Amino acid sequence: MNSKSRLRTSLAIAAALFLGSASAYLMPALSQSPLRYTIAPDAAVGSDALRAAVDPVFDTSDMGETRALLVLHNGRIVAERYAPGYGPDSKLLSWSMAKTVTAVLVGLMVSDGRLALDSPAPIPAWGQPGDPRGTITLRQLLTMSSGLDHVEDGPPEKGVDTYRMLFTDGAQDMAAYAEAKPLADQPGSTFNYSSATSVILSDALTRMLTDSPDPETRRAAMMRFVDGRLKEPVGLSSLTPEFDARGTMIGGSIMHMTARDYARFGEFLRNRGQANGRQILSERWIDFMTAPSARNGGYGGHLWLNRPGAEDVLFPGRGPGSLFGCVGHNGQYILVSPKQGLTIVRLGMSTAEQRVALRPALARIVELFPS
User: Fold this and answer.
1) What percentage of residues in the chain have a pLDDT greater than 90?
2) How many whole angstroms separate alpha carbon 274 and alpha carbon 259?
């Protein structure tokens, strides 16, 4: 299957899942192995207590369908469970967890001196004299305070930008769709979570790597950067980004990894940009990503923080306030608690109502471990 055919298939599956019609398009089970379930002895948490916290995430119907759950303590897997038909080799959809991957790539390019956090983002569509969008900075894009008129959530028939950009009239050139939107607010004045914003960042990254408009050249340039600067150094062998027809990485949503590689990515963040004995990403960039942003204290630089402002996403008031998370549509989570030496990955399919029950169950696992 070539890249265009694979993208069409991925977008068809993703569109079905976005609309909630999971019965029409179930994510393919890439492993036919039997149920895999491991609870390892842990000095801090007894295996019985850990099992009692993990099992409800799979076995309680009001939380939706959990396909994979990993718990790492001090870098060691202490719990790993998969639903039937899934296993360690299954690549699962990231949804908005991809945003944090994009933010890491931006941080690498800032360290290289090719982008600057508080300079206007290099977007040619905003370059006409007098265009107020030309003042939007990289920081404002990363903290979801660009002021652009992006509508993230709502019924597709209402013209929601996320759906249009990913699956209908914006899908051929997602960055052009996102960048064409006018301002709704002064840049830096309001918080507005937006997947389209992350695609703009992905386009900016690509423009720093190649001047070519050719889609395959753009795609190849980005993949060389992803492979050489993130995938290989961190050990994310399963990381598979998708690209639109113009060759722009879909930086806000549609990437794929195994549960173990999502956990490796979480550990990379927990270890402040270090992996395999190397400092791959600047610690200062980790500090930026995990610092409360000016317009929402529950959001940092393309990361959710376990603080007020993230009540509908994480669980402020339970677990450490220093906990942060990559969070995706339908209940995808990488939860990282540096003070506890803890990384938790949950992948599956949960509606908004089911996530109301899922979040306290994940908080219960977090609270088992000492700070």
Assistant:
1) 86
2) 19
